Automatic annotation (TrEMBL):
<feature type="active site" description="Proton donor/acceptor">
    <location>
        <position position="148"/>
    </location>
</feature>
<feature type="active site" description="Acyl-thioester intermediate">
    <location>
        <position position="214"/>
    </location>
</feature>
<keyword id="KW-0378">Hydrolase</keyword>
<dbReference type="InterPro" id="IPR042001">
    <property type="entry name" value="Sortase_F"/>
</dbReference>
<dbReference type="InterPro" id="IPR023365">
    <property type="entry name" value="Sortase_dom-sf"/>
</dbReference>
<dbReference type="InterPro" id="IPR005754">
    <property type="entry name" value="Sortase"/>
</dbReference>
<dbReference type="GO" id="GO:0016787">
    <property type="term" value="F:hydrolase activity"/>
</dbReference>
<protein>
    <submittedName>
        <fullName>Sortase family protein</fullName>
    </submittedName>
</protein>
<dbReference type="Pfam" id="PF04203">
    <property type="entry name" value="Sortase"/>
</dbReference>
Length: 238
């Protein structure tokens, strides 16, 4: 009996040892499986990262970080001063007209287009009107000034405009004292209802100042003179 008991006890110990060995094997297998899974995941992540880096090298996409920028009111701001490029000579906003040979020194009003579609005229017979929808005197193109030859009070500012001769000078002054000088280059007379407005108001690459006034007989029915005198002048450059 003692020998049989000893044999059974030995078999039980062997069974327990087998169970322990089996448990350790299972634990080792699970650990190895987890290690393999983590290794595969790390490898896949590394491959993905490498692919993204390759794409970034192929197509450069800059990023701009704002962290750390100084947004305080004391932060300096750099500004650029831009100087406009002029395509021609600069004109002036006309303030006064002087014509030494005619002893004219007249104020200049701004005029536009009247209700009848023609250039407006100054309200005061002693003043001259600048057509402000055209160029400034002294700029490229044809600036135009108009004045009355007479009014209800008698002779007006341009009463003697026809006396201007070739080479006579005309001065335009702005309100800051700047002066632009022109000289007479031509004169012409047009019918009141002329269609040759391009001669006086049309575009030009020259720097012109055209002076207009009425001339000819007075038409009682039209309430105006039948003709227009135009004196063409050109800017004098030194």
């Amino acid at each position: 009996m003692g020998a049989l008991y000893s044999l059974l006890q030995l078999e039980n110990m062997r069974s327990i040892d087998k169970l322990i060995i089996l448990g350790l094997s299972v634990m080792l297998l699970l650990s190895l499986s987890q290690f393999i899974a983590e290794t595969v995941e790390d490898t896949a992540y590394a491959a993905t990262l490498t692919s993204q880096q390759a794409n970034q090298r192929t197509v450069f996409q800059p990023t701009f970080k704002s962290d750390g920028w100084d947004r305080s009111e004391t932060a300096s701001v750099r500004t650029l001063a831009l100087t406009p490029v002029r395509s021609g000579p600069a004109g002036v906003i006309p303030h006064r007209l002087t014509i030494p040979s005619l002893h004219i020194d007249a104020a200049i009003e701004r005029v536009g287009i009247a209700a009848d579609g023609k250039m407006g005229v100054p309200d005061d017979g002693d003043n001259v009107g600048w057509f402000e929808k055209g160029p400034q005197p002294g700029a490229s193109g044809q600036a135009v000034l108009a004045g009355h030859v007479d009014d209800q009070g008698g002779a007006a500012v341009f009463y003697h405009l026809s006396d201007l001769a070739l080479g006579d000078v005309v001065h335009i002054h702005d309100d800051k004292g700047q002066q632009v000088t022109f000289k007479v280059i031509d004169k012409a007379v047009y019918p009141y209802d002329t269609t040759a407005v391009a001669d006086v108001f049309g575009p030009s690459s020259d720097t012109r100042l055209n002076l207009i006034t009425c001339t000819g007989e007075f038409d009682q029915q039209a309430r105006t003179h039948r003709e227009r005198l135009v004196v063409f002048t050109e800017r004098v450059t030194h």
